Amino acid sequence: GSLADGGESDGAIATTLSWKQALGIGAAQAAALVPGISRSGASMVGGLLSGLSNENAARFSFLLATPIIGAAAVLKLPELFSPAMADERGAFLVGALCSAVAAWFATKFLLRFFETRTLTPFAIYCVAAGAIYFVAMLIIG
Q1: Is position 2 within any domain?
Q2: What is the pLDDT of residue 105?
């Protein structure tokens, strides 16, 4: 929600966290450096353990992702505008735009979902996806 409907804005969440809470959430997010650990899942768990509500843990997790996604996009720009990519540039830009729109809608959906629900379905999904991936890697090698 927003401040108008009784919830907290992303800025209010970020400014009301103590440094210990922010450090705990950041440390939890660092667990995502391990292959198979969800960055958003780890930071949401860190938020919950730091005392945030489901909704605010999800909001803060998405807020944390913004600079990383932006930096990754900026780092890829020279590659996109290299002469070798001239023929594919349009398709990549359309793909990036479609990805941005889909991410925006997915984020809006998830934030509304977490206003009234727990993170349990997300946790089950992460465990199931991780188990499937693990088994697939054992089989494929």
Answers
A1: no
A2: 94
